[in-house]
Amino acid sequence: MALTSHQKERYARHLPIDEVGTKGQEKLLHAKVCIIGAGGLGSPAALYLAAAGVGTIGIADADTVDVSNLQRQILHGDTDLGIPKVQSAKETLQRINSELEVLTYPVYVSEENIAGIIQDYDFVIDAADNFPTKFLINDACVRAGKPFVHAGVIRFQGQLMTYVPGQGPCYRCIFQDPPQEGAVPSAKQAGVVGAVCGVIGSLEAMEAVKYILGAGELLTGRMLVYDGLRAQFRTVKLPKRVESCAVCGGQKKGG
User: Fold this and answer.
1) How far is residue 54's CA from residue 26's CA, in Å, rounded to a whole number?
2) Can you tell me the mean pLDDT for 95-102?
């Protein structure tokens, strides 16, 4: 389907880019991205994907908007307090881009429902705020053959890595199992600077865009680590896929 005159104007800053152009913008318009978590990471990721013209965005989150969210969760505002985050997210995203289709899942993702949630999407964004959900997302995406980007933030720091089937290790290859409860402080306990969520969540959106376009180098086999206090990024080379990994160990080699 050719771009309309309105779309050519709306995405005029994309079209001169060699890696995007008309064909790339059409890919974005037909793409489907699922974001699990409508909080600190999911907010910037969703906003930039909506603005970029990703045609369908799914948002999964069971929480309602709380005043403590507003320091970093920029999908939501004062007038959204008490309403479901997925409702607030949908309203915000469609104000940015009325052509966008937003599908909402006001549930906690679980072993019982996650496969059904992610099955129709091209790419998944892990914007969860707890380790059990991050492992759940990894395992479901690996088993379903879905590419996804993982990210985590705390205080002034953040990290992200991308998994593509057959290319590099999965999240469980690196971290094996969730830490014991209380062993690692959560962002709620230790705090997080809102702008760090913005940096890392935006990078998650960038990984999704690159995957959809088939452009550049994804963070497969690498983890990008951000230190906001020192204004430094560093890339950590990850070990190759673990053959004994309970989730991806049976896959064909790809790194």
Assistant:
1) 9
2) 97
